[in-house]
Design goal:
This protein has about 110 residues and is mostly helical. The protein is built from six helices and no strands. The chain is elongated and about 70 Å long.
Length: about 110
C-alpha cells in the first residue's frame, strides 16, 4: 500500500508516539495471553491490521485503534486524550486573553 504525503510528513514525535502505542497494545495483548487472531476476530478486523496496529502504523484508522483498545479493556483512556482541563497551551492562551481589570456594567439610565 502506498503511503500518502500526510503519512510521510508525520513529525518524528508523532511517529514515536504511535510506535509506543503499538508496542503498548502488543504488550497488553500478550499479557492477556491473547493471540493476534483472537484480537482481530474480536475487533472485527484482519490479522494484518492488528499487526499494523502493533507496529504503530499511521495508516490505520483511529477507529480501529479505538476498537482494539476497547477489546483490551483500555478504551476509557481515549476520552481524556485531548481533555481541555489538561491542555496547558490552551489554558495559558485563555489566561492571556482575560481582561486586565474587571469593570461593572453600566446600568441603563
Amino acid at each position: 500500500m502506498k503511503a500518502s504525503k500526510a503519512q510521510s510528513a508525520l513529525p518524528l514525535p508523532v511517529r514515536r508516539a504511535l510506535a509506543t502505542l503499538g508496542r503498548d497494545i502488543s504488550t497488553a495483548r500478550r499479557r492477556r495471553n491473547m493471540t493476534i487472531a483472537t484480537l482481530a476476530e474480536r475487533a472485527f478486523v484482519g490479522r494484518n491490521t492488528v499487526t499494523r496496529v502493533e507496529r504503530g502504523d499511521a495508516g490505520v484508522a483511529l477507529g480501529i485503534y479505538a476498537t482494539v483498545l476497547f477489546v483490551l479493556g483500555l478504551a476509557d483512556r481515549l476520552a481524556t486524550l485531548a481533555d481541555p482541563a489538561t491542555d496547558q497551551v490552551g489554558l495559558t492562551l485563555a489566561e492571556e486573553q482575560l481582561p486586565k481589570r474587571a469593570r461593572a456594567k453600566a446600568e441603563a439610565r
